[in-house]
Write a structure and sequence with these properties.
Elements lengths: L6 H4 L2 E5 L4 H12 L3 E6 L3 H11 L6 E5 L7 H13 L4 E4 L14 H25 L5 E8 L10 H21 L4 E8 L18 H10 L8 H12 L10 E3 L9
Parallel strand pairs: 1-2, 1-4, 2-3, 4-5, 5-6, 6-7
Helix pairs in contact: 2-8, 4-5, 5-6
Length: 260
Amino acid sequence: MTDGTGTAWRQKVALVAGGTRGAGLAVARALAARGCRVYVGYAHDEIAAKDAVADLAALPGTVSALRGDVTVTSTLPRQLARLRHDHGRLDVFVHSVASFHRMSAAAPRPDGIRADLTAALAPLTLGARSLKRAMAGGPGRILVVTSNGARRVVPAYVSAGVAKAALEAQVRYLAAELAPCGITVNAVSTAKLDKGTAGEGAGIGAFDADVVRALGRRTPAGRLTTPADVADVAALLCSDEAGWINGQVITADGGLSLLA
C-alpha cells in the first residue's frame, strides 16, 4: 500500500462504521495513511476500539474512536451532527458493518435473516438524509463493503448474501439520487478474506483450512484477498480522482470471480 498523502487528503474527514476490525480497520488504515482525519465507528467493543486507535496512531492522519450502533435509528444522525459541529462537514463515509448467520436456504432462520438485513441496510437507510446534509457542497464519498455472496451462491451464506444483494441495490438508488449533490455512492466487493491472524488458516471463519488453501491456489493472483487489498480499492474510490465512478460495485478478488 502506498502512502499517497497530500493536501487534499489531509483536509478530509472520514467516518468508517465498523472500523475497528477486519476490512473496516484496513480501510481506516488506508485513509489515515493518506493523511485523512479518520473516525473509527464501533458499537460495543471498547477494547477493540482502543486497540484500533493505538494501531493506527503512527500514521500521518489522526484517528479517533466514535462509539454508537449505526443500526439504531438515532445513532448515525447524531454522530454526523457532531462531526459537522467539530469539522464543518464529512467527506467520506464507509459502511463496513457486517452480520453473518450460517443457514440453509431451504431451512432459513427468520431471526438471523432479520439481523443480517438490518446490519446491511440500516446504516444508509437511517443515515442517508444526514449524510446528504453532512456532505453538502461535495465532493462526498459514500462507500460500502460487500461480498461476492450477493451475486454467487456461497454455502450456508444465504442470509448474508440476500442482505448484501439488497445493499448493492441500495447503493445504486442512492448513487442516482445523490449524484446532483456531488456525492458518489459505490461498493467494493470481494470473496473470502485472509485476515492473517495467528496461525495457518486463522481468520478463515467457518471455512476449512484445506478449502482456503484451495481457494488461494485457484485465484489467478495466487493467494486469497486480504483486507489491505480491499482497503486500497476503497481508498481509490474515496479519492477526488474517482468522482466519475458512481453506483458501481468494484470487485477486488485477484481475479477469482473470473473463473467458471
